[in-house]
Design brief:
By secondary structure, the protein is mainly α. Helix 3 packs across helix 6. The longest helix has 35 residues. About 7% of the residues have low confidence.
Length: 183
């Protein structure tokens, strides 16, 4: 028997075929677990946050913005929210970042007396539902890659007090848009 025939016979043996398919299955299972572990958080949040909640918050936020006093000319130039993107690789925002921003908004913006008097009916309940859902579906053991940027935003809001809170309310629609784009 020639060497090439023996090599062909060896490569076609059933034992080798079974081992190769078992190895391929094992590798694909490991790859599937890794993909599921990293993408699972996004899938859960997409499934957990109802679209109706975001639409209702969007509508009531527009009502709230229309009720607010007119913006000062000098504060228009100030942007509180960092520039994030949901569809690009640079500066992409994730669910954990959104959860941290919503936490800041609840603690520093929507709890201020200057804002509370303008809030539409049931706005607090809608924000609580969004906040609670994000807490439920986001793993807080991970660290946000934009935590310094988000903390800087929180300092800007607190530093400007009521003016910062009013500006932050006007920018809340960006956050709702980011959530909608991630869904």
């Amino acid at each position: 028997m020639k060497k090439a025939d023996r090599l062909l016979q060896f490569s076609m043996s059933p034992t080798i075929m079974v081992r190769m398919s078992a190895l391929t299955l094992f590798i694909s299972l490991i790859a599937g677990v890794v993909v599921t572990a990293t993408a699972g958080q996004g899938v859960t949040c997409r499934r957990e946050i109802p679209g109706e909640l975001i639409r209702e918050l969007w509508n009531r936020t527009n009502v709230l913005i229309n009720k607010l006093p007119k913006e000062e000319r000098f504060s228009r130039q100030l942007r509180l929210l960092p520039k994030f993107c949901t569809k690009c690789s640079e500066r992409s925002i994730g669910w954990l970042d959104l959860q941290k921003i919503i936490d800041i908004y609840q603690a520093s913006v929507f709890s201020r007396a200057a804002i509370k008097k303008f809030l539409p009916q049931h706005y607090d309940e809608l924000l609580y539902r969004l906040h609670h859902t994000l807490q439920h579906c986001v793993s807080s053991s991970k660290h946000s890659k934009y935590s310094k940027t988000i903390k800087k935003m929180a300092r800007k809001i607190k530093k400007r007090r009521d003016e910062g809170a009013l500006k932050a309310v006007r920018e809340f629609s960006f956050i709702l848009r980011w959530i909608d784009e991630l869904m």
